[in-house]
Write a structure and sequence with these properties.
About 35% of the residues lie in helices and about 20% in strands. With about 220 residues, the protein is an alpha/beta fold. The protein has one domain: Rossmann fold. The strands form 2 sheets. It has a 7-stranded parallel beta sheet, sandwiched between helices. Strands 7-8 form a two-stranded parallel sheet. The longest helix has 21 residues. It is globular and about 45 Å long.
Length: about 220
């Protein structure tokens, strides 16, 4: 595969930053268009940053692939409605606009436990987005459902999550007792798994943490 043009939404986040770095390091990718409320800190001759209002997206440039890494938390967003506006509405708006721009393959950063039928608001929202994307006429859809994400949140302007720190410490102490899908996973590993799977995707595929961990080794 060569001369790939890619769109990425959420390139300033924990996994998005790793996705962007991987795309720019790939010689088969000739152009990357990032969508966000602010531009990535990195500058690159193959990167075009688009600062957008996700509630009123412009027409997107022609592309073949889309990586969706938008996300927040209810605590940061301030309410369930504000959380859904980012994790569901903005992501779906980008996907629809990307489909109109010619995108055929999509990679999504979702979450472990995503289920449209869940009684947990967070998991239900993630699952509803997965189902909504599956209804769009994409050739391939790769969904990453990581467990606890490990990465330097401070460098991307995110608050440190104490639960994740505790989970990571526990994993190091008794990791051999924890099933692979529940072990903490590095954001870079999630990004690498998506970057490996999306270009050749031809159906819906779900990647759990256990399947993504070996990619980082």
């Amino acid at each position: 595969m060569a001369n790939r043009t890619v769109i990425i939404a959420g390139a300033t986040g924990l996994v998005g930053k790793e996705l962007l770095a991987g795309l720019l390091a790939d010689a088969t990718v000739t152009a990357v268009h990032s969508l966000g409320r602010r531009a990535p800190a990195i500058q690159h001759p193959r990167l075009t940053a688009h600062v957008v209002d996700f509630a009123a997206l412009p027409a997107l440039p022609p592309a073949g692939e889309l990586y969706l890494a938008l996300g927040t938390t209810i605590k940061v967003a301030g309410s369930q409605a504000a959380f859904r506006a980012v994790d569901y509405e903005a992501s779906l708006a980008v996907a629809r606009a990307a489909q109109r721009a010619g995108v055929t393959k999509v990679g999504l950063v979702s979450a472990m436990g995503a289920d449209a039928g869940s009684t947990v608001f967070y998991s239900r929202t993630k699952g509803e987005l997965e189902e909504a994307l599956a209804q769009l006429p994409f050739e391939g859809l790769v969904i990453a459902r990581p467990s606890l994400l490990v990465g330097d949140r401070e460098t991307v302007g995110q608050p440190v999550r104490r639960g994740e720190e505790l989970g990571f410490a526990l994993s190091k102490a008794i990791g051999f007792l924890i099933p692979s899908n529940y072990k903490p996973i590095a954001a870079a590993a999630v990004a690498r798994a998506l970057l490996a799977a999306v270009p050749s995707a031809n159906a819906r595929k779900v990647l759990l943490s256990g399947a993504m961990q070996p990619v980082a080794r």
